[in-house]
From TrEMBL:
Pfam family, one: OKR_DC_1
GO molecular function: transaminase activity
Keywords of this entry: Aminotransferase, Transferase
Cofactors required: pyridoxal 5'-phosphate
Name assigned to this protein: Aminotransferase class I/II-fold pyridoxal phosphate-dependent enzyme
Entry superkingdom: Bacteria
Domain Orn/Lys/Arg decarboxylases family 1 pyridoxal-P attachment site: 304-529, 580-764
InterPro entries, A to Z: LL-DAP_aminotransferase, Orn/Lys/Arg_deCO2ase_major_dom, PyrdxlP-dep_Trfase, PyrdxlP-dep_Trfase_major
Organism placement in taxonomy: Bacteria, Pseudomonadati, Pseudomonadota, Gammaproteobacteria, Oceanospirillales
Keyword match Transferase: yes
């Protein structure tokens, strides 16, 4: 059996971490293909090359499978034995059986015997594969016991590994709710790589003593092991090394249940910081207790309190003597005409339809039972202190948070290109709005995100004007529709250095999945909040802050560079961590439409927010919430905790596969250019200097560096493609080419781009279909050009030029008119959007002005401040270019004139823009 030397780079052979599961599957299939060719080959020289290729693939797979329970190490020794004895026919037979077991996932349901003497095994694998095809996916077999793998970290010999594995196998009982297998690793590094590459690992048992170094050169761990070395750990005690390993596993995959088996002073160990261990076992503890403790821990995450309660309710015979005739399906089971609803949906959805809040159910407005428990589990899963379910979308979730935290005339800093629900939330709350401009991407008719310097500069304006105490909240979108992601921790840290009690609302509508991937998680609001709280409590931070403060006090506080050109640090004695995040769970995780969540990490929630939050929640939440949505949120949380790591990893893999093909395919590159990091994030915001996460030679090895350091990064799961070279605008391409011709749905376009998003439901087959469609379209565009006459080619060239060169600059926010500014003529930019909004309700205060005939422009040339009386929202880009009370600028007018989209909310082409009359602006009534 070949050993991998330390001088080689086996992780290069093992592939890139981001595509490990695809590499695993593809290598097994390639091995099966090579063996089939070998046993049918008569050419000795070609056979020699194939044997060498099979050797390489087996070596690569052995590294991967070292971190998986199936095939086991014993199975792999059997494969090597057949290979070394040159029994290639038997080897092919065993590999075929193994590949079928991996594809059908039959190893999750029964023991798979890979011995060449098992005559029935092949038929069983074929039957499993057939059943999988019939079901669509093995996971749909809800009667099967869920399967997981237990990681054991211990420096065991091969015979000892078999003993331990067999011992745990013997603990299993048919009545167990779950079935599991055992993976053993022998070192600190191997434990970390196992939890990264094996999503089946759900529990970890750290036993006795183990070395630091792996026998493999695990370069993929470099970013996780920074500052650690074998030398730095050699003087650590067994307990210290185990606690450090536990902490790092928790950072990578916080959902994994961890247990410590110690041979030392168990009482002394228990008194240390062992917060990431569920329990400590002394070495003499028997396997039965360990088995039951592990099963109970898995069950604690697998529970779905409200979904279970709703299922139980649906089985109860009840008499309904209140609203909802459809409850229990009564109004349709008795119908001669509406029975097709049951045919389509099935009866269970109606049996579970009720407005009851008792009988084992609960009230969303004031939960005390299974909904309360389900929300607590969701808070655990997403790293929040409190979580609240919302059944009418994140638009409502955003309004709840704003109303709970913001009083009339509080100042809110908000990115101007945020979702429209925030703008309307500002109206409802009566906030004084200070809009922040994102950096523009004029070439693609889209915005990026708000630079930190812009935020700090605005906060400083309020500080110097003596109004910083009025600034209540910073509201930003993370990640944006186009995939631009903030460095959340850095934004919070530096803003808190200027205003220590600033509240942050992070709209993570498109980012709910991010908490279940170790690269994405640090850029989420809940993770940043917890990390900063722990950081500010530490002695090391206090020492760092004291040194920074001593240097900072030598600088000129009135010089902007003092604040803007260096990293700021908040006072640990003054800072309060107050972060809120809203998630459209239905957009990126499993939930029915409109299922959303509000996550809270606020040190002042109990003292200052709980009561107003409850009132805001009552204001916006229906008294008849949809229980199916609540149940789906409960199940979606459970799925995210149990297999979110695997699903998100697969989502990233499919996105990277799509990107690679678009980067490298000659015909696709000609018409469809994928925007990479440097296209969407200017160099000023890329400290790492990373231009693209992909390199044709080294693969996806730069993503972690950028995500760890840069002010902004791009989510690779959101593939924005510039299509200007086709001569077709984004809206036409979306509707006429993708949807109408091929049934491919996308959501977001700009004038010359389309956005493709992968999600946890995206399969490799779906990616293959999309690529096939894009290749067909590219060929169609080739034929169109080849077969066009000279005048037709000129038309195409003009369209391409218009879409690639004649793009109107994206306008910044102009200003609020003085009539809607709390301090007209002051140095701060906030405006009273509520006053402007309701002033427009009186018809005599407004009029329409057209700009397509020059009427509005003439008024502006005559010196009139033309002020919008409504929101004006073109689709795309899908955010307000004008809000009530905003002065119409020449740049905004030029942008509106250049738009070639048909959908502009708030604009009536036959009448024009709705604006305030000059008389209404001379003395607007107080709001």
């Amino acid at each position: 059996m070949p050993e991998t030397s330390q001088t080689e780079t086996p992780y290069t052979a093992l592939g890139f971490y981001h595509k490990i599961s695809q590499l695993r599957a593809d290598t097994w299939n390639a091995l099966k293909r090579d063996l089939g060719h070998l046993i049918r080959l008569n050419d000795a020289s070609r056979a020699k090359n194939l044997v060498k290729a099979i050797d390489v693939k087996l070596t690569r797979l052995e590294i991967i499978e070292d971190y998986h329970a199936f095939p086991s190490k014993e199975d792999f020794r059997h494969l090597w034995s057949l290979f070394n004895r040159e029994e290639y026919g038997l080897l092919e037979k065993v590999v075929k059986r193994l590949v079928r077991a991996l594809i059908s996932e039959s190893y999750r349901r029964r023991h798979v015997d890979l011995s060449e003497n098992d005559a029935d095994a092949e038929d069983l694998e074929t039957l499993d594969a057939l059943n999988q095809l019939r079901r669509g996916h093995p996971a749909s077999n809800s009667s099967a016991q869920p399967y997981f793998e237990l990681l054991i970290v211990d420096n065991l010999s091969a015979p000892e590994e078999e003993v331990v594995r067999e011992a745990f196998h013997n603990m299993r009982r048919p009545e167990d709710r779950f079935v599991y297998d055992v993976v053993t690793v022998r070192s600190f590094e191997d434990a970390l790589i196992a939890v990264l590459v094996n999503p089946n690992i759900q529990a970890c048992l750290i036993r006795y003593e183990f070395p630091y170094k792996s026998k493999y050169n695990l370069s993929a761990l470099r970013s996780y092991l920074e500052g650690l070395s074998e030398q730095s750990l050699e003087y650590q005690s067994e307990a210290e090394r185990s606690i450090l390993l536990s902490s790092m596993i928790h950072e990578l995959r916080p959902e994994i249940d961890q247990f410590l088996v110690t041979s030392g002073d168990v009482e002394a160990t228990a008194s240390r910081d062992i917060r990431h261990f569920n329990r400590i076992f002394y070495r003499e503890t028997d396997y039965i207790e360990q088995h039951h403790t592990i099963m109970r821990a898995i069950d604690n995450r697998y529970r779905t309190p409200f979904f279970d309660a709703l299922r139980e309710y649906s089985k109860k015979p009840t008499g309904v003597f209140h609203a909802m005739p459809i409850s229990r399906g009564k109004s349709i089971t008795r119908s001669h005409w509406a029975g097709q609803m049951i045919d389509f949906y099935g009866i269970n959805i109606f049996l579970a339809e009720t407005s009851a809040t008792s009988g084992g159910l609960d009230s969303l407005l004031q939960p005390y039972g299974p909904i309360k428990k389900a929300q607590e589990y969701a808070a655990r899963a997403f790293g929040a202190r409190q979580t609240f379910f919302v059944t009418n979308g994140t638009s409502t979730a955003n309004k709840i948070v704003v109303q709970a935290l913001v009083k009339p005339r509080d100042i809110v800093l908000i990115d101007r290109d945020c979702h429209k629900s925030h703008h309307y939330g500002m109206v409802l709350a009566g906030a004084h709005v200070s809009y922040l401009d994102s950096y523009p991407l004029d070439d693609y008719s889209m915005y990026g995100a708000v630079p930190l310097k812009e935020i700090k500069k605005t906060l400083l304006e309020y500080k110097r004007s003596g109004q910083l105490h009025k600034v209540k909240m910073l509201l930003l979108t993370n990640c944006t529709f186009d995939g631009v992601v903030y460095n959340v921790r850095r934004v919070m840290e530096e803003c808190l250095a200027i205003k220590p009690d600033l509240v942050f609302l992070w709209d993570e509508a498109w980012f709910a999945f991010a908490g279940f991937n170790p690269t994405y998680r640090p850029r989420t609001a809940m993770h940043a909040a917890r990390t900063l709280r722990d950081r500010y409590r530490s002695e090391s931070y206090r020492e760092e802050y004291d040194a920074w403060k001593a240097e900072f006090e030598t600088l000129d506080p009135d010089d902007d560079a003092t604040w803007l050109d260096r990293r700021l640090m908040p006072d640990p004695d003054a800072v309060r961590i107050r972060a809120y995040a809203t998630h459209s769970t239905h957009k990126t995780l499993t939930s029915l439409r409109q299922g959303s969540m509000i996550h809270v990490w606020d040190q002042d929630y109990r003292q200052k927010v709980e009561a107003p939050f409850h009132e805001a929640y009552m204001t916006h939440t229906s008294t008849s919430p949809n229980y199916q949505i609540i149940a789906s949120l409960d199940v979606g949380r459970m799925q995210a905790e149990m297999e979110g790591f695997e699903l998100v990893h697969a989502q990233v893999e499919t996105a990277l596969s799509l990107r690679e093909q678009l980067y490298t395919h000659p015909l696709l590159k000609k018409y469809f250019r994928v925007l990479v990091n440097k296209d969407m994030v200017p160099l000023d915001f890329r400290e790492s200097g990373v231009e693209t996460f992909y390199d044709p030679v080294t693969g996806w090895n730069k993503m972690e560096e950028a995500w760890a350091n840069d002010e902004f990064v791009v989510d690779p799961c959101r593939i924005t493609i510039a299509i200007g070279a086709t001569g077709i605008d984004g809206d036409t391409f979306k509707n006429e080419y993708l949807m109408n011709k091929y049934g491919i749905q996308i959501n977001k376009t700009s004038r010359n781009t389309v956005l493709f998003m992968t999600n946890i439901g995206t399969s490799r087959g779906a990616i293959a279909y999309l690529l096939d469609v894009l290749i067909k379209l590219a060929k169609e565009f080739e034929y169109r050009w080849e077969e066009s006459s000279r005048p037709e080619r000129k038309i195409i060239e003009n369209r391409v030029h218009s879409l690639t060169k004649e793009l109107p600059p994206l306008p910044d926010f102009s200003r609020f008119h003085d009539a809607f500014r709390p301090a007209p003529g002051g140095n701060t930019p906030e405006g009273d959007i509520r006053r402007a909004y309701f002033l427009s309700y009186d018809e005599e205060n407004t009029e329409y002005l057209r700009f397509d005939n020059g009427e509005l422009q003439a008024q502006m040339r005559n010196g009139r401040d033309v002020v919008s009386a409504s929101f004006v929202i073109p689709y795309p880009p899908g955010f307000p270019v004008l809000v009530p009370g905003q002065v119409v600028s020449e740049e905004i007018l030029y942008f509106l004139q250049a738009l070639d989209v048909t959908e502009i909310h708030g604009y009536r082409p036959e009448l024009g823009l709705l604006v305030f009359t000059e008389e209404a602006l001379s003395d607007p009534p107080l709001g």
